[in-house]
Amino acid sequence: MMVDALLTEPALAPEEDLLTEEAFRPEPRHPFPSSPPARPKLAPHPRRTRATPLLPSEPALFPWLARRFSPGEATVWTGPSVAVEPVLELLYAGSALARGRISLLEGANRFHPYRIGELGRAFGVDATETLRRIRIARAFTAYQMVALVDGWAREVRRHPPTLLVGHDLPTLFADTEIPDDERSALLGHVARILAGLAREVRVPLLLTLTPDGFERFRVLADEGPPWSDLITFARGPGTLRLRALRDDARVALVPRPAGQTGMEQFGGEFAEEVIAWGVPLRPTTRRSRRG
Asked: Does pTM surpass 0.90?
């Protein structure tokens, strides 16, 4: 069965329901109550330890990312979609390799099961099993997103995850048909619900924002959950750079063989940790025409 057909396959048995897009069965909603700082407030240390690893120990990027998460706190990734989403998909596959389970709210309709399944397969995890470990709910309007956030706590009590992911939650609230005062009230409500969710379920929460996401979701810094870390993503020619705010840790991801070094060995502006992508190539039976 093609992985990208799993979303619409009606004949799957219950135990084969690989991708769930239910609206988390929210209860009837009550009326909603009526610029983040230059340096967002990060939750204080020490952090609580996890009984099981969030991500595997290899490739080297996974431990770097895992150190930025903490139970009951939000880790925020911000940057262009072309920079953030490849790492997000890699995180989905790594979570499956670590036998984790993800509960995902998708706000931008950019979930690609085929690519994620192939990444899982590159790590030795069956594509079907990789997708089975992700429960996804997608919203197509701001009001649907509010309903999903309202029901998220009930969903994760029924299906406990190891990681919560909110992908581009404020995107749908940019609809020009939503009055400004209503948009502000809705986003404030979402931020407060996320704060309560983080306190209740005590698992790490990942929130991704586009570069203008802070401007659109300013209330997140004031009324949302405590932040474990903020990671900014920047894409350059042949390089993807990540920078973590808490300890100013920086990493550059480059398509180079493991063990090979570059200009970073000379220090100066290149003094940052450099990690090769490190995803194993999938064997193929296709023969080279030169063979």
From this structure: no
